[in-house]
Design goal:
mainly alpha, c-terminal domain of poly(a) binding protein
Length: 114
């Protein structure tokens, strides 16, 4: 009996990778082995990037809260310590938004904390 090869599935698999490599430069976009490696590496960067995004945003929120707190004569660590002691459960994302876009509301939070 002759050997059966599932060329439909193989072609579909290659086509999927080549579609993901669309827009790459040089042989990365049209040579199968190079494109496969480039797409795999790109997927690794994307996975790691999703983790870095979380770190970067948290860092940004902390900087914004710190700037807002210092306007009212308080450091970030002092503010966050007093915030938890006073039982106000606002996360950093919300606090950063208040500090940036709603300074009067942020001032009210600082008033509660003091």
């Amino acid at each position: 009996m002759p050997r059966s090869v599932n060329s439909v599935a193989s072609r579909a698999r290659r086509k999927k990778i080549m579609k993901q490599a669309k827009g790459y430069f040089g042989r990365r976009k049209n040579v199968w082995t190079v494109a496969k490696n480039a797409v795999e590496k790109g997927m690794q960067y994307a996975y790691v990037g999703r983790k870095h995004k979380k770190r970067n945003f948290r860092s940004l929120w902390i900087q914004r809260i710190n700037a807002g707190a210092r306007e009212h004569g308080m450091s970030y660590s002092e503010f966050m310590g007093k915030l938890s002691k006073s039982g106000i459960e606002l996360n950093r994302k919300v606090l950063a938004d208040l500090a940036m876009n709603h300074p009067e509301a942020f001032k009210a939070v600082i008033g509660k904390v003091k």
